UniProtKB/TrEMBL annotation:
Name of the protein: DNA-directed DNA polymerase
Keywords, in A-Z order: DNA replication, DNA-directed DNA polymerase, Nucleotidyltransferase, Transferase
One of the GO BP terms on file: DNA-templated DNA replication
GO CC terms of this entry: DNA polymerase III complex
One Pfam family per UniProt: DNA_pol3_delta_C
InterPro entries on file: DNA_pol3_clamp-load_cplx_C, DNA_pol3_delta-like_C, DNA_polIII_delta
Domain DNA polymerase III delta subunit-like C-terminal: 140-252
Entry-linked NCBIfam families: holA
The organism of origin for this protein: freshwater metagenome
Gene3D superfamilies attached to this UniProt entry: 1.20.272.10
Amino acid sequence: MERKVVVLRHLQDLLAEDVDTFVAAIDACIEEVDLVITSTGRVVKAVSDACKRAKAETIGAAVVSNQNERIKWVETKLVEAGFTYSPDAGRVIASWFGGDHARIAGLLATLTSAYGEGAKLSRSDIEVFLGEAGSVAPWDLTDAVDAGDSTKALLMLHRMMGDSHPLQILALLANRYAQMMKIDGRGVRTAADAVEILGGKEFTARKVLEQYQRLGSAGISRAISLIATADLDLRGGKDWEPELVMEVLVARLSRLGGAAPQRARAYKR
């Protein structure tokens, strides 16, 4: 039997006057037609109800960027799969897979096969089936460095080096501090001021500004100097393995990030 696929993109932009027509089309959809709908926003209730009547399958494709969002997303998937789980289960999975969200479905299928539907999962139950560590988003490394968390920063570094050349990671770090240099001495006080200079999103600009305020001009200069030295060492300036060069660099940058904010230091007389 020949089948047809009909795709409707950006359902969130459907005009109000077209809702009834679209709902009627869903209700009248025949077996030989696969209707695929995409939406990045709110779906009106009438359309949502029509999809439920048609027993439509919902496939989540949410973009999750920071760690807390990843954990919540993973926990949602565990609930949808019918599992109960230990309090740290979501964090374990999110931390291990990083940005490789596509691997979650495979893990859930494996857990269902191993333990059955509705099983209660402990951390050890999950860790057995995690496999290789997933990819790491660039901000996972830079956020750890900014926070002065050298242990986490080194863990993120090792994960990144599985997919990226050390010089690529060095360029990422260099760009981070180059952004801080752009606002140095410019009288920047707010995230909006930083956006005017750096462009991009206010959230990202705020993080750059906060770290700039923590390090100050001297700290940024020190970071740039450390990166320049690492660049030379990676190109043969020092007889070290590339991994060691990057480990030393990230540890030193993290130590800078963990220092007291320049404007918050107190001195005793």
